[in-house]
């Protein structure tokens, strides 16, 4: 080590480069602001209504005052709009109409669904619009700040703000991934399919194992699901295993019968996932056509028996649009 070199500085000791405000103290906003604080920026204001929001702000942004949304914009150079998707357009319009938006102010939203077009009212008021969506589930606790390290961000921004958007993501420890404005809804649908639906599948599987007498469903599923997820991320559809991919029509019929008796609410989802899995297995040459016929008959029979919301019968043959549905269902089960 060079003794004449200056000692390293904690980022918090550096002069703040931007004042940061948060509109919507849900699980996301305070964590991002806390991460920006570690990078040398200075959170100065946060807005939140519910008791949970107030507690989160106090825990992750201590000493940062809780104010109205308009006051947040008045105090901050960089404003994080971290509200639910459906509330975002109205919030932006309201802030712009009341004159809260200032020229040159960075207005950042974290919605996966929208690009920067939703920020057009703020743009017309002179603001600089960025869409930075962290691809992570948030707990609303300090662990989220640590999890941002290596987290992908879906980024949409005007070309002239590309470097600014990348810099903010990198300062939060993330990896920027550019998403075209028109691709944002599809991008978000893909993430919901892979993450949100995964939670439902896992919770349902644990519930069914409990009904089957398993005392620790989480401990049983952990290694299996971890391996299935790792294999799916590495190999895609080639990771498919289980009775559907093998064409074991009798096993699938037994599953449907058991679910119909013990968990009728799970039948429609099982049939839908099994059919999509069969389509993908057929399309990739994993499911033999001669075995697929009996399997598809079983699934069609289950659908005809009146499961609400289940898709109607159609020929198997590889829709190719399942969006990763092979990751759920029976992957890894022999």
TrEMBL record:
Region described as Disordered: spans on this chain: 299-334
Position of the signal peptide: none
Sequence ranges of Gly residues compositional bias: 315-334
Domain DUF2520 intervals: 151-276
Pfam families to which the protein is assigned, alphabetical: DUF2520 (PF10728), Rossmann-like (PF10727)
Annotated Gene3D superfamilies: NAD(P)-binding Rossmann-like Domain, ProC-like, C-terminal domain
Domain Putative oxidoreductase/dehydrogenase Rossmann-like: 8-134
UniProt protein name: Oxidoreductase
Organism for this UniProt entry: Streptomyces hebeiensis
